Predict the structure.
Amino acid sequence: MSTTRLFDDNMYRFGEPQRSYWEANSTDLPDVGEPLQGDASCEVAVIGGGYTGLSAAYHLAKNHQVDVRVLDAGHIGWGASGRNGGFCSMGGSFFDIEELISRFGVDAARAHYGAQRDAVELVRDLITNENIDARMQGDGELELAHSAGAFAHARRMGKVFREQIGVATEIYSADEVRERYCDSAFQYGGTLQRPTFGLHPLRFAKGLAAATARRGTSLHPHSEVLEWTKDGSHHRLATTSGTLRARIVVYATNGFLPENLHGGFAGVTLPLISAIVVTRPLTDDELAVHHWKTETPVFNTRPLMNYFRLLPDRRFMFGGRGHSTGDPAGSERNFDRLIAAFQRQWPGWRRVSIDYKWHGFICVTRRLTPCIGRLDDDDSVFFGFGYHGNGVNNSNWTGKQIADWIGSGQKDTPDSIPVLMRGLAEPFPLPGLRLRYLQTALTWKRVVDRFS
Ligand SMILES: Cc1cc2nc3c(=O)[nH]c(=O)nc-3n(C[C@H](O)[C@H](O)[C@H](O)COP(=O)(O)OP(=O)(O)OC[C@H]3O[C@@H](n4cnc5c(N)ncnc54)[C@H](O)[C@@H]3O)c2cc1C
């Protein structure tokens, strides 16, 4: 059976790491694990060696002494976990805080943000406790308002966060942002949230992989699961070079989820491509042009949102929405659009050359919140995905929730998982048209963005 994919084949070249800044700056850390060879068995098999899968395996082995193996189609951390922007921030849904409260109530919104904060602290603890050289940077996350209207909205949300949700949020005028952080072409004020920070995503993934392997877990890179069958009470996962039998499976492939590996997940995810470019290192004089003086990660409020940060070697990273199908020519056109957006926001850097560009999938669900749970018709299958672009904290936290759930042996969803993340979302209507929905939405957003 082949694994049907939603996007262009270009997005699933598991044997080819992205030519990213992160790959270029983690060659001193060895890849962990060997491909699965022959027949093997374990208690829990994890499909997907990103943060969700690694964190599930790490916590299962460390806290519950469970025999677990991880299979990834690429190298460990090949997916979004090894190529994201490194914002360890809070969110996890496409709702703003007022919408979240009006849909789910203030208690559920508070519980959600309690989990978001715990998730950020979990990443910090993993880095500290396992001595991972993840190159943490900054103190918080700054949201830059790109218009007066956007600042009025951000200020209102900031007050809700502070007064109703208990998230530390500071509100800065345009002058205060210029004084403390930076100055750009679109800047009407900003809000800063804590306790978030930036990191090197692939060094973190590799460090977590090494810590997981130290707990006795076998990690199998270059072991794409091509077939998933059930043999009595056991699952059988077949790769090109071996098979893995397990009583429990954790499905942790997020935006790279193969559509037809397991019918229970058909049409449930909508991957979106996020893309990043990185400049050559900037000089002091160049940084001064835009009053840039922070290592704190920043994003803007544009309809087609951009996220950016200064990296430890003073290169500037700028990210945003990727192409709608990911084919090579369309992706190149999208990188050009992203570079144009970078130059519009930072006109003083428009002649600075770009040294790296790459992309990958984030994952959206129909209900616009993450999905954590076990299948109704097979409770030996656990899953966690759909972090809506905030996966650094959420995926690691989700992996831990799944590990503790399996370790506890309890049937029902643990109370620690907020209501709005529980279980599978409904499949998208007419799932075969998902790319069309996406193309329409992207075209519309581009128009709105141009006039905003
Ligand atoms: C460009 C970009 C920027 C981003 N920036 C941020 C950010 O700054 N902050 C933030 O919080 N989030 C960010 N995200 C999102 C975040 O990276 C993800 O939400 C998170 O890494 C998801 O982790 P995961 O382990 O669930 O999935 P992934 O890390 O995507 O891992 C899934 C793995 O499944 C594997 N796989 C797929 N099919 C199979 C199969 N059949 N057999 C075996 N393995 C398989 C893939 O090889 C892949 O390694 C960004 C994402 C991208 C792409």
In short: The chain has a mean pLDDT of 96.
